[in-house]
Specification:
single chain, 87 residues, mainly alpha, 4 helices, two-stranded antiparallel sheet
Length: 87
């Protein structure tokens, strides 16, 4: 129909509802976060950690894999929380 901007908007909107298991999904993530907060679960938002560094040229080592620094940060937080839990 020749409307690139409408097609682009429709495409990105459809991605929100694409709940495949092989990738992250904003709608699914939001639902999970809300449910975790209702139950007072400790949450580490890995996606937020990575996206907070947008524009710093340190995000990914491959097109889909965040650099090791993010996994190291996650490991530190999880170990610290686990040690608190077992004490």
């Amino acid at each position: 129909m020749g409307s690139f901007s409408r097609a682009k908007k429709a495409f990105y909107h459809s991605l929100i509802y694409d709940c495949g298991l092989k990738k992250s999904n904003p709608l699914f993530t939001k639902i999970l976060m809300q449910e975790a907060e209702k139950r007072n679960f400790r949450i580490y938002d890995f996606n937020r950690t990575v996206t907070d560094n947008l524009g710093h040229n340190i995000l990914f080592s491959t097109p889909r894999t965040p650099q090791v620094i993010y996994y190291e940060q996650l490991k530190e937080v999880l170990v610290k929380d686990f040690v608190k839990f077992i004490k």
